[in-house]
Amino acid sequence: MAEVVFDQASRVYTAGAKPAVNRLDLEIEDGEFVVLVGPSGSGKSTALRMLAGLEEIDGGQIRIGGKNMVGVPSRDRDIAMVFQNYALYPNKTVGENMAFPLKMRGVDKEERATKVRAAADVLGLTDYLDRKPRALSGGQRQRVAMGRAIVREPQVFLMDEPLSNLDAKMRVSTRTEIAAMQRRLGVTTVYVTHDQVEAMTMGDRVALLKDGQLQQFATPADLYDKPANAFVAGFIGSPAMNLFTLPVSGEGVTIGSSELALPRSLRSRISSAGLSRVLLGIRPEQWSVGSSSSADGSGSGVKAQVDVVEELGSDAYLYAHLDDSEATPVVVRTSGRSGSRRGDHIVLTPTSEELHLFDPESGERV
Amino acid sequence: MTATLDRPTDLAPAKKSKVGSTLLAVLAWIVGIGFFFPILWMVLTAFKQEADAYTSPPKIVFSPTLDQFKEVFNAGVGPYLLNSVFATVVSTIFVLLLATPAAFAVSLRPVKKVQDVLFFFISTKMLPVVAAIVPIYVVVNNIGMLDNIWTLIILYTAMNLPIAVWMMRSFFQEVPKELLEAASMDGASLWRSLREVVLPVISPGMAATALICVIFAWNEFFFAVNLTAAQAATVPVFLVGFITSEGLYFAKLCAAATMAALPVVIAGWIAQNKLVQGLSFGAVK
Amino acid sequence: MTTTLERPTEIVPRQPGNSGREGWIRRAPLLPALVFTIIVTQLPFLFTLYYSTQSWNLVRPGSRQFVGLENYARVFTDSAFRGVALNTVLLTLGAVLIAMVLGLLFALLLDRSFFGRGFIRTLLITPFLITPVAAALLWKTVLFDPTYGLLNFVLSPFGVGRTDWISSFPLTSVMIALVWQWTPFMMLLILAGLQSQPHDVLEAARMDGATGWGVFREVTLPHLRRFIELGIVLGAIYLVNTFDAIYMMTQGGPGTASANLPFYIYQRAFLGFDIGQSAAMGVVVVVATIIVSTFALRLIFKSFSGGEDV
């Protein structure tokens, strides 16, 4: 059990080029489940592989349990990793795969067997111990990879997109199992994914990276409610947050031909930041929908026309465009069976006071 | 157009192509048997009496005999066979011992300038052997290694090494890098993870490489005929000696040729899927 | 290097090595093979270069002396050498191209499922596996023999009498034997190419209305191009060194009518014992090979290095 610290940790592939991971600072507590998330090329996998000892740490430090890991080979870091393609040893049986890390550490045969059996029991692999990996389903292989990691009782678990090779249904159930198992074992875990749903549902805290740079490191709720910048705001949440760059006017902002009044608290934040234009973020569920006939003339809503309606059963997403010169697209989440159809003219009104404001230049939260 | 009219036109092309594919299959059989026929005839002739071999028109029905094979053994093929087996096996072992680590160094944990190294290995196969035979002969003669089986072993090792490096490289490239990474996470040293994890994965590839090397070493003639005599000569050299001393005894020659070719033909049949991979230096998977 | 000392602007890669100790650890597994190959295959060429400047005949001991480029002058004025060089080109190109065409046709025949496909493929590759010396023997005696040869027997209904193929058409006879041996290789190569064709592309082409021939010409042939080039270059590499077939079938004769460079140089070195002269020829052949092969290699190096394009 250990805490993991990234202290200005950096990775550069070629001198002078942009670092793949740039001065990453993360303090991961003992027993915490941290998810590294970001689009491809964000450096999340590189960061994980630096922690694993599979990539050099070119600058700064990574510490596990207070010990600096620069120059320490993987095998001496006391960590276990689950790979995206599982990396099971094809010529070893399930049991041998799981026992391999113990064997390498000189654990005697009997103890190995006991531990493997215990892990197999937990993972429901008892009947498969003598099979070769190729005779297993994807989900079972994933479990073997998990098993190989947990028999070791390492200080830290690393997982590199472990669910991406599973089908959608399996992914959801395994997601829950992994999270539950981690909580039971209490081993510090660093988990990499590109899927923000996995990040939000599994992590105690989530670190969002982009272009090798940490964007925000916070709990899922904070990430959702208080995104540090426009990138975070757009990345977290599905469908993505609506972001509009708008001129500031007396009572709020001008959107298309109409004016959108903003609450006083938001207005004061804009004025103290001294902005004449602002990047306004409104989540799809922060709209209420009215029909255009009921709202004409009132001026408090935004006019839009529906392009596509996605009925999901419990909810519906309306993909619409605003009634402005650019026909800016907008996404609205409504309750199911909203009755809206393609071509309908609607009026949108923000329902929440907690709208998101960002500096249109820097993208930082205002 | 109505449905009833559509039906027959739908069926017709299918029927036609069925006839066509049967014809093509028959053609393939004819071509295959035709190409193989000289070999079949050679094997048949090997089981004939000389009198049956010398007939015009050629005899198809005859009473098979092993006499010719006995004669070949009486002519002393034994030591030649032993030399061939020894040179083939030992050079193949050397090739694998040298090529496996080299292929590892150009694939899983690549050194710099991998392309240059690989290019160098093929380029050695581009240069005509004949340009090297003179100095090789002179050097081998000076150090008293003429007619020595180890001379052939060294040359066969060098001859097969480039192919083996390229072929082994293509097998190493199929090993996911993550296997090595996982092993190192699991606490294995590099040597241990190579032995316990990578080696079992590439061993079928090693077997294929070995078979290719065996085929080439067994069939090699140029070095053997120029650098060996009574002591170290191999089976192809025996065949040559056999033809000159025995003149035209068809059946006996065919028996000798059959014996010379048989081991490699069987090896090649086993490795036929890997044959191209070896000969193309791994360029075709 | 510590964190505090590090300047905040530049992070340099701490590459593990291609330099220093780590670099040598990486290179170590390569070195034995590399050193061995250099010693056994490269050093002899240096000797060849040196010998080519000597007048040195093994049957006249003590006659050895430096003669500069005289050996080369004799090579280029030797009309037999030119004829032999031409033979080499004809034999190599002829055998490679005919084998390629036949191999392509056979591969197309085999690239469909039919009863006994694996068996036929096995039969077809066998000529390639036969020890070349045995194959040459087989052609010389069982097939080409004027009296008892199968070829004359098969052709007799067509009025071909007792042709002595090998004396009448020595170079062609050798070429036929080589084509027979090399067609299987070309076939296997093209078959590998055909089978690596993605099925969806073929299906898409058919959906787009291409006929069988159209699919072949527009989709399959461009896909096979890489394999055809590879087959030609590899076939040429091996066939330019042809020795066994000539040695067994014609001994280069009559005269040098069917000799190629390897056989001619062999004759000069081991029958004429003229070391200097044969070394000079060797050098000429190497230089010519280097010129041709760098040209050929540039064309197909993509295939060798396993480029995934095409």
Report on the architecture of this protein.
The complex is a heterotrimer of chains A (366), B (285) and C (310). Chain A is elongated and about 75 Å long. Chain A is an alpha+beta fold and 366 residues long. In chain A, 27% of the residues lie in helices and 31% in strands. Chain A contains ten helices and 20 strands. The mean pLDDT of chain A is 90. Chain A has a six-stranded mixed β-sheet with strand order 6-7-8-3-9-10, sandwiched between helices. Chain A has a five-stranded antiparallel β-sheet with strand order 15-19-16-17-18. Chain B has 285 residues and is mainly alpha-helical. Chain B folds into two domains: 45 residues; 205 residues, MetI-like (MetI-like fold, Orthogonal Bundle). In chain B, helix 8 packs antiparallel against helix 9. Chain C is flat, with a radius of gyration of 26 Å. A two-stranded antiparallel sheet of chain C has the order 1-2. Chain C has 310 residues and is mostly helical. Chains in contact: A-B, A-C, B-C. At the B-C interface, helix 1, helix 4, helix 5, helix 6 and helix 7 of B face helix 1, helix 2, helix 4, helix 5 and helix 6 of C.
Give the secondary structure arrangement, pairings included:
The complex is a heterotrimer of chains A (366), B (285) and C (310).
Chain A (H helix, E strand, L loop, with lengths): L3 E8 L9 E8 L4 E5 L6 H9 L6 E6 L2 E2 L10 E4 L11 H11 L4 H15 L14 H13 L5 E5 L7 H18 L2 E6 L2 H7 L2 E6 L2 E6 L1 H6 L4 H6 L6 E6 L4 E4 L2 E4 L2 H10 L3 E6 L4 E5 H4 L6 E10 L3 E8 L6 E7 L9 E6 L5 E3 L8
Parallel strand pairs in A: 3-8, 3-9, 6-7, 7-8
Antiparallel strand pairs in A: 1-2, 1-4, 4-5, 9-10, 11-14, 12-13, 14-20, 15-19, 16-17, 16-19, 17-18
Chain B lengths: L2 H44 L3 H4 L13 H8 L2 H29 L8 H13 L3 H13 L6 H25 L3 H9 L4 H30 L2 H6 L7 H12 L3 H21 L1 H8 L6
Helix pairs in contact in B: 1-12, 3-12, 4-7, 4-9, 5-7, 7-9, 8-9, 9-12, 9-13, 11-12
Chain C lengths: L19 H8 L3 H21 L2 E2 L9 E2 L3 H8 L1 H32 L6 H13 L2 H12 L6 H6 L9 H4 L1 H26 L3 H9 L4 H28 L4 H6 L11 H11 L3 H30 L6
Antiparallel strand pairs in C: 1-2
